[in-house]
Amino acid sequence: MELKLNYKRTALIGFAFFGILLLWQVYDSWCPTFLTDIFASKMYGMSSANLKASGDAEHILRVQWLVGIVMACDNLAALILLPIFGSLSDRTKTPIGKRMPFILTGTFVAALAFPFIPLFFHRHNIAGMIVMMAIVLMFMMMYRNPAVALMPDITPKPLRAKANGIINIMGYFGGAFATVLGIFLKLSNYINVSDAARKLYIIEIPFVIASVLMVISALVLFFTVKENKIIEEIKDELEEGEKQAAIATPVDDNKPMSKENRNMLIAILCAEFLWFMADNGIGTYIGNYVIYYLQSASSATMYLTIIGGVASVAGFAIAGYIADKVGRKWTIAAGLCVTMLSILCMSFVGPTGKVTGQNGEFAFPVALFAVWAFKGFGMALVHNCSFPMVVELCSSKKIGKFTGFYYTASMAAQTVTPVLIGLIFRVSLAWRALPVYACLAYALSAAVFIFFVKNIKAKKVGNVKGIEALGDSD
Hints:
- This protein has a single domain, classed as Growth Hormone, Chain: A, CATH 1.20.1250.
- 55% of the residues are buried.
- By secondary structure, the protein is an all-alpha fold.
- Helix 14 crosses helix 16.
- Helices cover 75% and strands 0% of the residues.
C-alpha cells in the first residue's frame, strides 16, 4: 500500500500549533521581564529601569532566581497535568472526538485569562499576576497535550516526521504574529521609563491579540478537522503504518513494552530533558539578557525570533527528507551539534557600547543574528524528529500517554532550568553564564543521543513523492 501524506489536512492540524506558539511567544517574551521589574520594585523600592540607570545592575541579577522560581512553578504544574490530560484524552469518546473537547476548553479559558496578566502587572498586583499566569498555564496544558497528539492520531507512522515539520511551520507563523507585535510595541519603551509615563496599551495589546488569534485558530481546527470521521477513513493506512514503523520490536498492547523499545524511550527522553534545559534557559532569559546585559531595545529580541523562526522553517522543511536518508538519530544529533556551536559563539558576544535609540540603549550586536539563525535551524532538526520517535514506540491507543511522556521530560527540564540559572546568576553575577550553561547542556544532550539511541530507519515504503503527493488532498 502506498502511504501518502495529506498536506492539506496536516496544515489544518497545524492551526493547533499556531495557537500554542503564539501564546508561548508572548508569554516567554514579556512575563520574565514583568517579573524582574515587579520583584525589583518590591525588594529594592525602585523599578528595574531605575536600578539600571543608577548603575546598580547587580540587584537585577539577584532577583533572577525569584523570576526563575515563578516560571518553574508554572512548569511544575505542567509536569503534573500534561500526562493526566494525555491519558484522559486517550480514554475520552465524544461525538467531536477524543482530543477536541480538551482543545476547545483549554483554549477558551486560557484566552480569557491571558490579557489579565499585563493588567495586574501594570497595577503592581503581583499576586493577581501570578494567579493569572497559573490559570493560563493550567488550561494550556489541557489544550497542549491533546492538540499535539492529534497529528499522530491521524498520520501513519512513517509519515510523521514530515507531518511534524508542516505543523511546526504553522506554529512558527503563530510565533511570527507575536514577534511583529513586539517590534512595534516595544517592551523596553514601557520598562525603561518612569511609572507615571508607562502606557498600559503597550503591553496589553499583544496579549489581547494573542488571545483572539488563539480562539480563531481553535475554531478553524474544530470546523475543518473531524477526528472520528478521519480516523475511520484512514484505518487501513494507520494499520499499514504500524507494520512499517522505525522501531526495534513491533508494538503489542497486550504485552509489556520490549526491553529494546523501553531503552530507546528512556534514552530519547533523557536527551530531550537536557536539550530543553538549554533551550528553555535561553528562551526564559533572552529578553532580560537583551535589555539588562546587552542594554539594547527589546525589539532586538523580536528580530532574533524572526531570524530564528525563518531558519527553523527551513529546518522543518527539509528535516523529514534528511531523516529519510540518514535516519532520525543522526538528523537530531546534527541539529544538536549545530545548536551547541552557535551558542558557544554567543558566549563571546557582549554589549556594543554604541548608544542609539530614544532611551539611550546600545546598538544590538549583529553577530547574534547569525547565532540565532544557526540555532533555529539546528533545533528545527531536533524538534521535527524527536516527537515522532517517541510516539513511534506506542500504538494508536496510547498516543496521548506517550505524548505525556515527551512533555513530562520537557516540562521537568523547564521546571529545573529557570531556578538553576537564576541561582547561577545570583552567585556569579554574570550574564555570560547563560550561554555557557546552555552550551554545556546541549553538548551533554548530543552525547546521550549519539551514544545511547539506536538509529533504526523506517522500512522502505512506497511513499508518494513530488507532484503526485500533492493530489487528492481532500
